[in-house]
Amino acid sequence: MSLISELIEDMEKDQEIVKSFRSKDSLSDVIFDKDGDTFILKEEIREKLLAISNEFLEFVDIDFFVYDIVLTGSLANFNWSNYSDVDLHILIDLDEFDSGKASSVSYHTIVKEFFNSKKNIWNSNTSITIKNFDVELYVQDIDEKHTSTGVYSVLNNEWVVEPKKLENPEDIDEKKILEKGEEYAKQIDLLNELGESGEDVTEKVDELKDKIKKFRQCGLESGGEYSYENLTFKLLRRNGYIKKLMSIKTMVRDKKLSLPQ
């Protein structure tokens, strides 16, 4: 395939992804049942999500109190699509692990890194799907700010935050999302090229990761899940660029620590 053909294919894929952000008239009927004016998680889905959560807790292999297990993200909202994941969050209190022997900030960070590592290993080594949607697990501190407009308690079988349909479901600036996504994609491609050539771009990768994180957070706080900042981030995640950015540091590290013949 020629470079021009690849570029056209990538552009068409990005356009398809952006169109998937449009709000639907209903929640996914393979995940939820309609019950009057609300939606209830299908019982077979709920049972499977609880079983998955239990398996993950056994994998973590330490005792702690689970405050809730929730389904969130686009599948718990009206902007679900074929690109959606089953975002399953296990809510815990990180302060529960405070030993009193270190500063609460440093200990809190260590515990969070532990759970993130466990989550990453689990997600990387499992290929669990629910009705063809990939399952992504996340351990969330009960004090962590969560801006999702759709949160369903799998544990209690009820809405924590019930989603609302957009008044103007077509009111998404697709061109703006595509342009910003392309801007970030070019920066990621450049860092990848520099890393492959042997340049240590670790610091630049961290700076770009922080920039994208702040960009998304700003959008979530000001405009919510349908903000163009958050939708731009979702575009980069769904077209593989967030994963590509995350892999650059690993590539650079491997090159630095390897000894060629």
Describe this structure in words.
This protein is an alpha+beta fold and 261 residues long. It has 2 domains: 3-20 and 172-257, no CATH class; 32-161, Beta Polymerase, domain 2 (2-Layer Sandwich), CATH 3.30.460. The chain has 7 helices and 8 strands, in the order αββαββαββββαααα. The protein has helices spanning 3-19, 43-60, 104-125, 174-196, 202-223, 228-238, 241-257; strands at residues 32-35, 38-41, 68-72, 86-92, 129-130, 133-141, 151-153, 158-161. A 6-stranded mixed beta sheet has the order 5-6-4-3-7-8. The longest helix has 23 residues, at 174-196. It is globular. The mean pLDDT is 88.
Topology:
Blueprint: H1 3-19, E1 32-35, E2 38-41, H2 43-60, E3 68-72, E4 86-92, H3 104-125, E5 129-130, E6 133-141, E7 151-153, E8 158-161, H4 174-196, H5 202-223, H6 228-238, H7 241-257
Parallel strand pairs: 4-6
Antiparallel strand pairs: 1-2, 3-4, 3-7, 5-6, 7-8
Helix pairs in contact: 4-5, 4-6, 4-7, 5-6
